[in-house]
């Protein structure tokens, strides 16, 4: 039996999971479908999406998973994906912003945004924002943002010394394209900063939706043996890659944390929290700073809202 199995009945529920064809996203998608939900997921690659659908059809049943094709670093694709979802569904009970990536070098998206920021923060922010009406229609929807504890300690090899939260100063930033600039760029910190922004804006969504029944929480899943690890492991540790993978959580174990936040009955109504696996934890101090939160929200909203 999968370690990640969901203990509640999700028939008549609709879920949207980003990045369902790989790593933990595949497990989250499959287990939500196994529990009865109709799951919509995304993939950049049509064929990988079809493979997932065939796998779920074999294991669970046909037509349980729908795959939308798109690149989550593209604002036009995000708007199209949201439009495709809303055209086919009238409610959204569970949104799991799972997709994420780490890049070894500084890349810009077609929109001119640094790529870590685009996929790890702006994608989830934009979908959450665009799907608000459908989340509201569900009555008591849950949003789960899969973030990373790297925001609390952005040292690539944290063996000695004190944790170093990733720096974030938005006081002079007027455009998301100015975040994670080329000057002083460190990939690991750029990834961590994007996760921090996802966490901060999740707190703001949670507050705004406090009285309407939509909960929003963030979770670090643990260190999990998936594709992203190969991009995250510093080059100096590359010879030990397979040894490292053996010591990590499996994707099934890693997916448990997001599945729990998305479905556990005892977490109903819990919102605006950050968890490391199943333990509620404090995120970096700057994430509780009101001015930073207001600035992160405004920058992200302007970007998400722009007509494309
Ligand atoms: N593994 C860990 O130790 C760890 C730790 C902390 C947080 N996380 C977070 O956990 C989440 C899941 O990651 P994972 O570990 O399962 O990694 P993974 O196996 O690399 O899966 C990442 C997923 O995101 C999708 N994705 C990446 N870039 C995309 C893009 N531009 N457009 C659309 N989809 C895109 C991938 O789709 P493709 O198949 O198209 O590439 C894949 O399905 C991520 O948010 C990651 O940051 C992971």
From TrEMBL:
<dbReference type="GO" id="GO:0016491">
    <property type="term" value="F:oxidoreductase activity"/>
</dbReference>
<dbReference type="InterPro" id="IPR036291">
    <property type="entry name" value="NAD(P)-bd_dom_sf"/>
</dbReference>
<keyword id="KW-0560">Oxidoreductase</keyword>
<dbReference type="InterPro" id="IPR002347">
    <property type="entry name" value="SDR_fam"/>
</dbReference>
<dbReference type="Pfam" id="PF00106">
    <property type="entry name" value="adh_short"/>
</dbReference>
<protein>
    <submittedName>
        <fullName>Retinol dehydrogenase</fullName>
    </submittedName>
</protein>
<comment type="similarity">
    <text>Belongs to the short-chain dehydrogenases/reductases (SDR) family.</text>
</comment>
